[in-house]
TrEMBL record:
Protein name according to UniProt: Phosphonopyruvate hydrolase
Keywords for this protein: Hydrolase, Metal-binding, Pyruvate
Top-level taxon: Bacteria
UniProt key word Metal-binding: yes
Amino acid sequence: MNRSRQLREALKAGHMQTAMAVHNPLSARLVEEAGFDCLWGSGFELSASYAVPDANILPFGTHLDMMRAIASVTTTPLIADLDTGFGNAVTLGYILPQYEAAGVAAVVVEDKTFPKDTSLRENARQVLVDVDTFEGKIRACKAAQKNPDFVVIARTEALIAGLPIDTALERAQAYANAGADAVLVHSKQKTPDEILAFVERWDLNTPLVLVPTAYPQLNEADIRALNKVGIVIYGNHAIRSATWAMRAIFRQIREQGGIHCLPDGFTSVNEIIELQGDAKMRDLERLYLR
């Protein structure tokens, strides 16, 4: 089963999927190892790994190349975060087949203007395109896809922009009617009340996608009980955990003046070699090197 079909059938069957953010192939392998259903090809994480703002600073090709690299070493469905789509509907018509060819199972496109600003920074610039313009982007994606199982997810930033729930619902419904296979709704509130109110009023069969970064008290069991959510995305926890671990180890080495102080359980070189796929290379050596 191709990865797009795997994701589409899970959504159709009502099996809520969990997706963890990734920013390179190694993080993707660790996500697979942990047992998540999907990989989230996070624009925030990729930007952070290049130490630039999450504001469409990185070019389209850099993002596409990383998604291809991740898909080449994994089998889990990869959801690519396209931000605003790197341009307009015409742009999306050209680039979406390239993501399909790269092994991506789904894309998410959001309804902010290009270039975007990140969603959860305080006092960020959150400007939305008009509904008709974004409907055109969704239709362009659906028309451009070659694999009928490919999943197109529309993301509304209405709540992030401080607009009322009624506006967010109107936008989400318009995007679903334009052909989106799922709708991602985001909030920066510190409690899940706003999102729960949105979900309660959602009356279409199109599944929702939630990203509970700002309201971690809403756990998977609670979300699953809503019976309307198809995917839960943990949007930035790979880069945050990697940064936390590196900062702690680097500081410890400087403070102790050497690597004699590394803690028990610190990742061994052999573990990294295993994650690099060394076993496959040794098999090839046995078969073909003389």
